[in-house]
Amino acid sequence: MILIVSFLVVVVVFFGWFYRHQVLLRDRAHLMREAIRNEEFTFRLPVKGLFFGERALQEALNETGKDIGVLLARNEVESWQRLTRVLTHEIMNATTPIASISQAYLDNPAIAGTVYEEGVRAIHETSRGLALFVDSYRKLAELQEPVLVEIPLAAFVERIRTLYPDLEWHISIPLAVTMFTDENMLRQVLINLVKNACEAGATTMDVRWYKELWISNNGAPIPADVEREIFVPFFTTKKNGSGIGLSLSRQMMVRQGRDLCLAERPVPGFQVTFIVS
Hints:
Keywords: ATP-binding, Kinase, Nucleotide-binding, Transferase, Two-component regulatory system. This protein is an alpha+beta fold.
């Protein structure tokens, strides 16, 4: 009798555990479905408590989500590059003759000192200003090919820190960690992130390595309604912003087969976290 009772207890406990395990798997499937539906491909669900087969499947799904995010970012970057290339070409074609003709009129002695000079000069300065404005955006479509080298990441970030001595820095990167990347491009990306953080009122930067490079700051948080727009070229919430810093930074990383994204949740103690993956 005792043996039968013990057996029944074991069966009840097993099926209770099995049912709970299946509920957890169902919840995981729901979370991943919602993440994909909302185009949040940076999801990474934990593998603790899973059997080896389930763990391997979850790890593969985590990596697949990241790969999909990188591919979408690459396609988005290429689309913006094509659009920027066309727009800059058409605008330059329209403004260059205006600038040349207006300059010719300004050089004409018959125009100097007349009532027409001020108007012609305004046309000339406006056309030149527009040409310079457009030319500054050509960099979005004309990035150089990256030169990939292996760099010691801790020493590299330390050199960035020296550029901003007024900020408090927390750097947690093992000395053995290296990154295969274009050094100049990565430097520009980090400088852009720190510059944006300073403009948002940050006083502290946190840079850490957790299989990827996480860059956090304690400046003003990014509003939820603009999180999806921050990498769109020319989008800015700043009064005098150009809207190319983050877009250009992401393009630099995508050109290297990497990505730059905004973390779904910032590192505890900070308001904003970006991930270079």
